[in-house]
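Quick check before the chapter quiz. The format below is the same one you will see on the exam, so make sure you can read both the input and the output lines.
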Amino acid sequence: MRINEFKIQFLNYLIEYRGRSLNTKKAYDYDLTKFINYLLSLGIVDADQVEDKNIETYLSHLQCSTITKARVRSSIKSFFNFLSRKSLIAKNPTINLESMKLPEKSPEYLSQDQRILFLQTIKKVATPYYKERDLMLAKLLLKTGLRRAEIASLDVGDIDLSKHILKVKRKGNRETNLFLHDELIEDLRKYLKVINRNTDEPLFLSKRSKRLSASSIWHLIKSYSHKAGFNGRVTVHSLRHTFATTLLSEGLPLPYIQQLMGHRSSQTTSRYLHLQNNELIEAFNKITFEGGE
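Here is the expected output.
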């Protein structure tokens, strides 16, 4: 079977059996389509014709960042692993292809003063019509740590003020109930009163009265980041990291943080421990063991 037909099978498998999001499917499709076009230029049309040297040569000539190259490598490896598991190819050309090790990156987060400045900036510069929406959006990000796609998918009916519960669609189409802080309950109560929408309507609307998209949320936060003087360094993910760091600073146990963040692995949550380690090192170095001599 032609490699393009195998690609379609693989992409359908990601959605139907792995529960991956449409955005994830698009990313795999983009990476694999470019790779397959390269193979076709070499006259390779069948998956069994692909050799490890073809993959290595393609990856070595990619003009992109290290992170992007690692993602492409992972996409290709996942694709051929799928074909091998399904016995659709005689030999897996990626069997010796190692994953790229990327340097551990510290999550960006806002201090308490920066959080206050960020919210004050929205109050000051947002247009009157969108001030309530954008403030609620920022507070929801800061006080729940939700991802932008999770925020975008929220409907009014997903909020249960009496039970302090928010129904969230997590990665992989998992539905979970997220416990809401008392502060956020009051914020939401006021916001819902202002917007006065039906339970089946989106929580956040665009200028055209359509559901606010995940990309629009990204651009909004980025814009306010510039206006707050953060030079665009603050993103939706920064606010998510801020939420996790705040919980950790207040002494919430890691398993609780993992649940609130929607992490499947505790290893993902443990990335935030280094933030506390930095504070520990700073405090430790202030201690004088020899009386300053």
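If your answer matched, good. The two ends are 77 Å apart (CA to CA).
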